[in-house]
Amino acid sequence: MKLRHFWTYLHLYDRLTVGYLGLTLILIAFSAEALPIRARLVVAHIAAGIFIAGLIYWVHLRAETHRDYIPPRWLRFLRDWHPLFWFSFLLFGEFTYLVKSVSPFWIERYLIGFDLWLFGRPPYLLIQQYLPWWVIEVMAFAYWSYYPLILGVAGRYYFFRSENKKSRLSFVDFMNRLSLAFYICYLLFIIIPARSPRHALNLNEQLNLVGGPFYHMIAAMQDYVSVVGAAFPSSHVAIAWVALITLYGEHRRGFWRLVPLVVALTFSIFVLQYHYVLDAIAGVMLALGFEFFWQRFYSRPPIFSVTNLQSIRPQAATDTLT
Question: Are residues 125 and 246 in the same domain?
């Protein structure tokens, strides 16, 4: 095993994940806030780092010393998709404990003030008074669609070829963009902490929305996985737009089909009162700014992409799942 090659086998999204795990590990370990599960979070971060290192070894480094070794497809799939696991089940859930580790001040009073200036009174009163149940249900479906949207766009790059024959965007490049956008949002959550309207205004006791099965499913999910903080900007909006924008040059038909859904998702975070208006605006602006930055500085395939590392990797360890 050639450990000196270990770093070269990491994609950009691997490096971002390891770096974010390390940064938040330091924040958790040395936070002045009383964290009731500090030890559990520290162990989880260390275990995640070890798990990623194990994936790199079993998919790449082992092939250097065992020339007849071909990693199984399920392991290669796990190696490629592992960031989505951390986004969903570890990193977002810990914001309840991390969100005030840097700044002790909540900023939602400014977000609430903007909503009051825009609508003249608390917007949830207008929402529950004027929006019929079917609009709430459509908004709930759009909000829920965030999860299959991200998985679907990632799967499109992973399993299918681009409609654009000149395309140079691979699944790895897509994951690089998605991961960088996620971690930008996560760092902003820590730097400028804000609670959602439901937490800051205790709307769970005051908001009486009527919807259908999707609304009730979303409400049940929020009761189980909701975190205090992580409101500004809306990562739902920012990530959805980042994923959508990648499709414009790669799968144009898919892009136009998904535009109405992502627009509805952008409105849904406010209509359902999980975010403020400025959260949605900031999410869209972040996605557009991110795209400008990416095209300006990463218009060519990232230096950490599979294509550029192909020459130093065993072929069996770098084939993508088809």
Answer: yes
